[in-house]
Amino acid sequence: MPETSVVTLSRHILEEERRHPEASGQFTSVLLEVALAAKIISREVNKAGLVDDIMGSTGEENLHGERVQKLDAYADEVIYKALDHTGTLCCMGSEEHEGLLPIPDRFPKGEYVLLFDPLDGSSNIDVNVSIGTIFSIHRRVSGPEGSDGLLEDCLQPGKNQVAAGYVVYGSSTILVYTSGNGVHGFTLDPSIGEFLLSHPDIRMPDGVGNIYSVNESYYRRWSPGQQRFVSELKTSDPPFTSRYIGSMVADVHRTLLKGGIFMYPPEVRKPGGKLRLLYEAAPMAFLVEQAGGKATDGRRDLLEIEPTSLHQRTPLYVGSRELVDRAAEYLAQDDL
To answer: Is residue 2 part of a domain?
Structure first.
């Protein structure tokens, strides 16, 4: 066979596994099943506007008081059903469910935990703006092996993640992941149904970039330090460019490739932040730091935060290291 530069996601993951002779194959299986779920979700997302029964709200609210979109519910079920029977997981956690998602008794239990946001930015579905899926994988810390997972298996700091990633459903479908050995992106070729390596070894650009991303409609709700930081970005020479999509996956994906900073700061009404630590912030922090960037909650290294609840919220500053550090300097002035 001739040499080929085509590298599928499955080939890439299997080659990574060969570097670890002790590997059982469970971790590989988790990643491949997540990729399968992403393909199924991508297919449905691409039908938006053509099939009426996947558009709009279910008429229900989730535990966060947010309206559940039909594709939210669909994506949540697809991911769960793709992995509940594999024997690789001891439990799962979803942004859409209040408690742990147990593995059914009829299936074996594995050594990993999957945490996921099934459809980030779902309010953008009806207007054809990029949305995404975020996932995080931990190794279980409870025992014995083969038993049901416990809450403590999910409530681990981000530094304990063995892998994290996201899928962007946009002009193309791209899966980006890290298992602690660099960050790699794969674009779905719908003609063959495979994710192909398109962005090997992603590194954040040198320097600070020239883009900041934040919802400036909340300016009056920010602390003085946050306001001063954004004002500095606007008036620097040359000034930074503002880009905000309103879908965190898409905004962080751009930040990862182009540099700059993405922020979801605390507000007067939400001093603890809005983003979920386990399902959104920690996976993105792990990815960006693996690509040479940095992530904090404005004061602490985000990967060091010890979670106390499944749906704990946090502020998030993620992007080029120098900009994230500069934001922290401004925020520290609020304490003086």
So the answer is: no
My answer on whether 149 and 33 are in the same domain is yes
Q: For position 64, which CATH number holds?
A: 3.30.540.10
Domain count, the chain: 2
pLDDT of residue 58: 63
Q: How far is CA 216 from CA 226, 246, 262, 265, 310, in A?
A: 11, 11, 12, 10, 28
Largest Cα–Cα separation, the chain: 67
Threshold 0.90, pTM exceeds: yes
Reported as a single tens digit per residue, the pLDDT across 222-274 is 999 999 999 999 999 999 999 999 999 999 999 999 999 999 999 988 999 99
Q: Choose one of 171, 199, 227: the last residue of a domain.
A: 199
Check: CB of residue 28 under 8 Å from CB of residue 157: no
Q: Nearest 5°: CA angle at 310, between 216 and 97?
A: 90
2-39 per-position pLDDT tens digit: 445 689 999 999 988 888 776 678 999 999 999 999 99
Kindly state whether residues 168 and 258 are assigned to the same domain: no
Q: What pLDDT score was predicted for residue 59?
A: 61
Average pLDDT, the chain: 92
The domain in which residue 291 lies consists of: 211-335
In the beta sheet, which residues pair with residue 235? none
